[in-house]
Amino acid sequence: MSSQLKINNANCAAFTLVEVICVLVLIGLLVSIPLAMFTNSVKSHVGADANYAQIQNIQMAVTRIILELQNATNVTAVTDGIDYKYGSENRSILIKPDTNETRKIVLVIATSPTVFHPLVKNLDLVVSSLSYNSAQSILTVTIKSNFSDGAQKTFTTQIYKPL
Q: Is the pLDDT higher at 1 or at 113?
């Protein structure tokens, strides 16, 4: 009878616990590699979107300054910006600290009362400057900003404005 039991056991096919654990570990390793790659690609995509939005805001700030100065007269440099005359209004484009101590570019219209308009919202400025060279009629706009990857980038443009 005991020989009959041995024959039945020899025909049974089954995995040992060690084999099952090894297979599960291998499957886990194979799944973790694409998952890590996917996670990194999502993070880089989110960072690229934030950087792209920041660059768009900087381009918009420069464009708004150019549009504002198209019909300006009597452009003069002042501390942290420029003063000019737009039609009959005296205006300024200044770089001023915000309530949370970040810097932003604002349009100041000297009316009664004085009106402050941010030219661009959500612009993370580190250092910015507006300077006007009256001898050459060139306005220089420099914007240094923080980006999502921790880098700081500087954008400079010169605008020729004959007066």
A: 113
